[in-house]
Amino acid sequence: MSDEPRFAPQAWLPVLSGFVWLSAGGDSGWAVFTLCALPGGLQLASGFALLLFPGDRRITHFCVFGAALGVVVLPLVGVWLGPWVGALLLCAALASALSAGAYAIRSEEVMEEVPTARHGVALWAQVAVDEWMLAFIHSTLVVASRDEWKRISTETRAAQEWFRDRGWLDHPLNYHQAPTAPENPGLDSARAGGVTFEHLHFESGYEPHLEEPGRDRWLSHVPNRTAHAWVLRHREPGRPWLVAIHGYQMGHAAVDWLAFPPAWLHRRLGANLLLPILPLHGPRKIGRRSGDGYLRGDVLDTLHAQTQAIWDIRRMLHWIRSQSDSPVGVLGYSLGGYTASLLASVEPELACVIAGIPVSDLIGLIERHGPSLQIRDALTAGLDLDCARNVMGVSSPLVLEPRVALEHRHIFGASADRLVPPAQVRDLWRHWGRPPMEWYPGGHLTFRAHPRVAAMIEQGLQTAGVAR
């Protein structure tokens, strides 16, 4: 925690905004008051919580969520209250969100070898976007029950012993099975987000090792047995390929194209694109949301999801190489950055790897963002976090060694990231031998607003022959 006063000045703006919203709806009937009370109450409660319970990083999530909710309901409220009151409420909500962003970044510790971003409205706004996303994830997260934590704890300890007996804790690369090329892959025409592309799909064929803990449960996820990818190819043969790996809760074509714009990567830089869909995402999902089950704390499910991601992408690489011997590079964001980093440790013939805002310790990420009650239940049930890290180590980019040449490893991170702690990005950079690194002064979700990130990606791809 940074050296902040006991009653931080940033906390008073949400309190004031909450009062303004509640007062505005107080004399306008129950319908308008209800619409004002939802965002106003959240901001007011969050502001007082920041004053009374400083240091709880989840408070700012819901402060921003309340302000964002106010912006959503404002068109309805403004009809009844008039434009001037509507403008006041909008300004109050925006000020509340910015103050929460400022509070969030100032409450973080200074990290060694991570530059400190210069504070200002632009930085606070970017951090506020991260806070909103964290509020959405927390409010919709499907978590394990107390009985499930007992099963997870028992299963994780059994997996650690099972892996140790087979030598995988000492030689984690041996855990990964070598896949063959996909048999009878389907390739259909599709269109989403204004982009016409090809939809590659085939039977994944991935199975955890015989008798491996969690095997039967993982194989019961029927939609996940089919591998999917979005493909954009040039008509001219011999073009290089870029494998672009999406982040958590993505996997829908219209969203994925926003993160990996065809106008930039495909047309201007000239690469063929292949966007693999991570297990449990998009058409492979098993819950209400894309990604449900990937990061809910079930250690073996997370391990199998990550291992299957590598298996499926390596099968897709076989498919790419059956068409040409052009260079293949990999670009991944967030959870996709973890996958790209791991792929660079397993696959020996990649031209380059660019890990953007990458997670590098999935157990650490769950430990940071998991609801406090769930963490307590997990520890009470006997879950050993060191044991969980040992198990996850067989599919960890911080344990395996990269096989891509040092000059073709690239990383970029956000110095004010609220979703992926900058320390995780720094730890991957250290493990990789300090390759080219770009820190941008912003949040996790706003990397595309920073030209230096795009310039770094272009330079890395061009140097490796993956872009013109």
Structure annotation, total helices: 16
- Main β sheet profile: 9 strands, mixed
Radius of gyration: 23 Å
Global outline: globular
Describe this structure in words.
By secondary structure, the protein is α/β, with parallel strands linked by helices. The protein has two domains: 9-140; 147-463, 3-Layer(aba) Sandwich (Rossmann fold), CATH 3.40.50.1820. Helices cover 49% and strands 12% of the residues. It contains 16 helices and nine strands. Strands 1-2-3-5-4-6-7-8-9 form a nine-stranded mixed β-sheet, sandwiched between helices. α3 (58-81) packs antiparallel against α4 (83-106), α3 crosses α5 and α4 packs across α5 (121-140). The chain is globular and about 70 Å long. It starts with 11 loop residues before the first helix and ends in a 5-residue tail after the last helix. The model has no long low-confidence stretch (mean pLDDT 92).
Describe the structure concisely for a colleague.
With 468 residues, this protein is α/β, with parallel strands linked by helices. The chain has helices at 12-25, 29-52, 58-81, 83-106, 121-140, 146-165, 215-219, 253-259, 262-268, 299-321, 335-346, 362-369, 372-380, 385-392, 422-431, 451-463; strands spanning 186-192, 195-203, 226-232, 241-245, 272-276, 328-333, 352-356, 409-414, 437-440. The protein has two domains: 9-140; 147-463, Alpha/Beta hydrolase fold, catalytic domain (Rossmann fold).
Features:
nine-stranded mixed beta sheet; globular; 468 residues; alpha/beta; 12% strand; Rossmann fold; 16 helices
